[in-house]
Design a protein that fits this description.
Layout: E1 23-30, H1 34-45, E2 51-53, E3 67-69, H2 70-79, H3 82-88, E4 90-92, E5 94-99, E6 102-108, E7 120-122, H4 125-139, E8 142-144, E9 148-154, E10 159-165, E11 168-179, H5 186-190, E12 195-210, E13 219-223, E14 232-237, E15 242-248, H6 255-258, H7 261-272, E16 279-293, E17 297-298, E18 301-303, E19 309-310, H8 318-337, H9 345-371, H10 376-389, E20 437-440, E21 443-446, E22 455-461, H11 469-478, E23 485-491, E24 501-504, H12 509-514, E25 521-524, E26 530-534, H13 539-549
Parallel strand pairs: 1-2, 1-11, 2-8, 5-13, 11-18, 22-23, 23-24
Antiparallel strand pairs: 3-7, 4-7, 5-6, 9-10, 10-11, 12-15, 12-16, 13-14, 14-15, 16-19, 17-18, 20-21, 20-24, 22-25, 25-26
Length: 553
């Protein structure tokens, strides 16, 4: 058994930035947590120069966010780091809920066959951050460690950030400032921007415990267990024989006292029920809240992750939604910075991610109300639901132990082009794309691995020979536009088209999930969301849907 060795990243004196007047940069990111790093990596993949500041010179201490959902893993694949994280993490699909010692509810995250990624992996946040830092440096992100934002001014066409470093203070101007500096967001507070929502009066103890245990890789939640009467306990397995244990303590618990080893160790021993050795790697007390900013875009500042919205940990919606913020933001910001889309496109970032935040807050609040009831009536409801769930399947739907993170279907987005043709299934405009196994150039692969970073148009045929010359010319012309649309042919049988990628739907799962018929087409965004779909390929319709998706309407 061993513990993680925290890296120290090289401090580069910012003397080159300490100029008068301040330097102006097109894009500055504040915060090198998962969201800020993902935004910076995506910026480089979009061809942007990016300057990132963080007040520390290492990764976050403790496991913190540990559960990464399937959609987040697909985003990390697009950023180029998904596989090593999945290799390191603990995949799991089963969640079990207990009342005292009896199991009352179980769920299974296993998606239908034919998806690259599992429903969820558990992995300490420091591993994610370390992988993102390495990827950012590989791509040429300019990261300045030990540089703390101590002041900010917001103007109509830029922001000015005051930075404190070991070499002294200096200012930097940014055409665009991505704010990903966490739940306590100094930038947000400096600007006096409020968050609205609910703060829950309860306290939980997090203990990262290093031990060898034969518990299965499942999410386990106990209500009123014999080893922690009257409260709840959550158990997760992580990498390196580290187990995350969350003990509900109640609002009156003393945070300073409860983190002392003499208080923590007996709780864990009582839970384990034996004398097996273990070591504490990290201990912390947390309270939680479900709230968000009124707007995520303020002039040239774009807030993302915990800086913009906060949820309780039940359902693993924090880090997952934050990474989806970056996923939905950076392609839009890249088009605006390159002068290929108007600034108004970024209003859709605010609208889409506020919608997603509200959806996450709603589900997280419901889970939190069930797990930490605050009135005699809600306590009675929870007890009745749990008792009934022991023996009656209908009651198991009432047991809310944390509805897990799923991506938002942004069907309301103004960027979508509504259907004019009839389709079945879930892949409607605004949907995050379903994966499917495909063959490309004779090699087994996955649909989502071929998508992202740009607009693409998928055209489905039974045989490549069905594509007429005019259709091919229309698709190839779209690829020459300023905002290019890359053509991709999906066929039931192998074939080749000069200058066009051909994917073979060898198992027929693309056709099933997308309700594909010969001649059908789908326009997809750089963040792998469907924009529009048709039962025929029409160049003008595709171009109009692309233009609508970049607000050129």
């Amino acid at each position: 058994m061993g513990s993680y060795t925290y890296p120290k990243f090289a401090y580069v004196p910012p003397t080159d930035l300490m100029t008068t007047p301040p330097q102006r940069r097109p894009l500055v990111v504040i915060g090198a947590g998962p969201v800020g790093l993902a935004a910076a990596v995506d910026a480089r993949l979009q061809g942007l120069e990016v300057l990132l500041f963080d007040e520390d010179d290492s990764v976050s201490v403790g496991s913190r966010a540990v559960c990464y959902a399937k959609r987040t893993l697909e985003i990390l694949d697009r950023l180029g780091i998904g596989q090593p994280l999945c290799d390191k993490g603990v995949s799991w699909n089963i969640g079990r809920t207990f009342l005292q010692e009896d199991e009352v509810y179980q769920f299974n995250l296993v998606p239908e066959p034919g998806h690259k990624r599992p429903g969820m992996i558990n992995l300490q946040q420091y591993y994610l951050e370390e992988a993102l830092v390495a990827r950012a440096l590989e791509l040429g992100v300019d990261i300045r460690w030990k540089c703390k934002a101590v002041g900010v001014t917001s103007e109509a066409d830029h922001a000015v950030v005051r930075i404190e470093s070991p070499e002294g203070e200096f200012s930097i101007e940014a055409d665009w400032l991505v704010v990903a500096d966490g739940a306590r967001s100094p930038i947000r507070r400096m600007l006096g921007l409020d968050m609205e929502g609910q703060v829950f009066k309860d306290r939980f103890l997090i203990a990262d415990v290093v031990m060898k245990a034969d518990f299965p890789a499942e999410r386990r939640l106990w209500f009123d267990p014999p080893f922690h009467r009257g409260q709840s306990v959550l158990l997760h397995k992580q990498a390196d024989n580290v187990w995350r244990i969350d003990f509900q303590l109640g609002w009156d618990a003393d945070p300073e006292e409860e983190t002392k080893p003499e208080r923590v160790v007996p709780r864990i021993q009582a839970m384990l029920g034996d004398e097996r050795p273990f070591a504490l790697e990290w201990v912390s007390i947390y309270t939680f809240q479900c709230r968000r900013m009124n707007k995520f875009k303020h002039q040239r500042l774009l807030f993302a992750g915990d800086a913009a919205h906060q949820v309780s940990p039940f359902g693993a919606r924090g880090a997952n939604s934050g990474l989806q913020d970056a996923d939905g933001l950076m392609w839009k910001l890249a088009l605006v910075i390159k002068g290929l889309a108007p600034e108004s496109l970024l209003e859709s970032y605010n609208d889409e991610r506020v919608y997603a935040a509200d959806e996450n807050i709603l589900n997280s609040t419901r889970s939190t109300d069930f797990i930490t009831p605050k009135s005699p009536t809600s306590v009675l409801f929870r007890q009745a639901a749990l008792e009934l769930a022991r023996h009656h399947p209908f009651a198991r739907k009432l047991v809310n132990s944390g509805r897990l993170s799923v991506p938002s279907f942004i069907t309301h987005s103004v960027l979508n082009t509504p259907d004019v043709d009839v389709f079945a299934g879930d892949m409607l405009p605004g949907a995050p794309m379903d994966d499917a196994p495909i063959t490309c150039n004779g090699q087994s692969n996955w649909l989502l691995d071929q998508l992202g970073h740009r607009f693409q148009c998928l055209v489905y045929v039974d045989e490549v020979a069905q594509l007429d010359a005019q259709t091919l010319r229309d698709l190839q012309r779209l690829a020459q536009d300023a905002v290019a649309v890359e053509p991709i042919v999906v066929s039931r049988q192998a074939g080749a088209v000069d200058g066009v990628t051909v994917l073979v739907d060898a198992q027929g799962l693309f056709a099933k999930r997308y309700d594909a018929q010969p001649g059908s087409a789908w326009l997809v965004r750089p963040d792998q969301h469907v924009v529009a779909r048709w039962r025929g390929v029409h160049r003008d319709a595709i171009a109009a849907a692309r233009d609508r998706a970049i607000c050129n309407v």
